[in-house]
Amino acid sequence: MPSLEYKSEVPFAEPAWIRGGGWRSPYHNDTHRAFRDSLRALLHTHIVPTMAEDEESGSHPTKETYQAMGLGGLLSSRIGVSCMPVVAEIPEIKLPSGLSPKQFDFFHEQIAHEEMGALGYPGVIDGLGAGFCIGLPPMLHFSTPALRDKVVPEILKGEKRICLAISEPSAGSDVAGIQTYCTKSKDGSHYIVNGVKKWITNGVFADYFVTACQGPGKGMSLMLIERSEGVGAKPIKTSYSPAAGTALVTYDDVMVPVANLLGKENEGFKCVMANFNHERWFICAQCIAGCRLIVKDCMTWGSQRKVFGKPLMNQPVIRNKLARMVGVVESSYSWLESITHQMNQMSYKEQNARLGGPIALLKLQVTRSATMVSDEACQIFGGRAITKTGMGGNVERFQRTFKFGSILGGSEEIMADLGIRQAMRDMPAHARL
Length: 433
Hints:
One of its GO terms (biological process) is fatty acid beta-oxidation using acyl-CoA dehydrogenase. Keywords: FAD, Flavoprotein, Oxidoreductase. This is Acyl-CoA dehydrogenase. It is built from 18 helices and 10 strands. The chain is an alpha+beta fold. The longest helix is centred in the middle third of the chain and has 37 residues, at about 270-305. It is globular. The termini are far apart.
């Protein structure tokens, strides 16, 4: 088990600004370095010791773990700038390194996602708040002040858990094709929700479900549904650990107070689309960190493994594979940093208007890179890459689960089309070769 001060000295195992040796960053300052060190210590104290066991057993994160993440500021850090005004009003929550909510920026949040992705146990990582990361932002941006004041603090403190329920058996990237629907009660005080959601991360143990449904008129509505009579959540077996709490969620005449509406009635599609930018961005940060962990293991293995009487790294073909892996990880990370910098400069409205296409293309680049990293790593590790235990464990888990990023939050094909379509809006009519 690495010490709390652990920082890998393996080439490319850490982002350049962490490595030392004269490397500098135009984006990061001392608060970011202290934040990363403190956050890494928090993870190694409360999360890392049981990760291997929890991944294998499929154990869900305990309420005590969630509360430790909440009061230790990890949950708030993964939501980021948008929740900091709320955090400032909750004295129990202490951000890592003693950072004040006013100091917090999108690079601090990026670091939080990276540190999670670098842990190497995908099911446990998602169980620790993937649903939370995409379920809470709509509450911050689209709920009424009364609903926000009631629900958000208890979630940020880790007392309650939340998830996002959009995808259905017949609707994934095609969000407009959802069939879950709602009608109004006779007295108009409640929505009555019926339908099915599928692949809902953290749905097994969530207390709240941010749910998209058709109606009650012509349009989509987004609302907060509390676990109550008529709400069911059945575990779904996926390629990774049940620790993620992936669920089939059912609604059977569920009564939802009209005060739980997020945004405007029948205009929920706008809320869903606005939420995707943050989701895709955090997937990119986490996925790149996972790729970097694999690069570290491959560099280490190439140096220690002997073949034909010499270190594996002596083989030109191995060095070529590593060069390709390092190239896609470092270039993807640079693009991520560039977009994060723009997020720091733009308002939420500007981000939605300008960054949707670039983030979509970044996600395509990152998940395509992960595909290559997984493939090359498997060839480098050989049989160990398909063995669940031992020195190739990180590679085995990665090659079994990297496709999650290619599908969740919008498939690669949708990302490619979206990115270019949005770019064409800025295509000058006079451009000619």
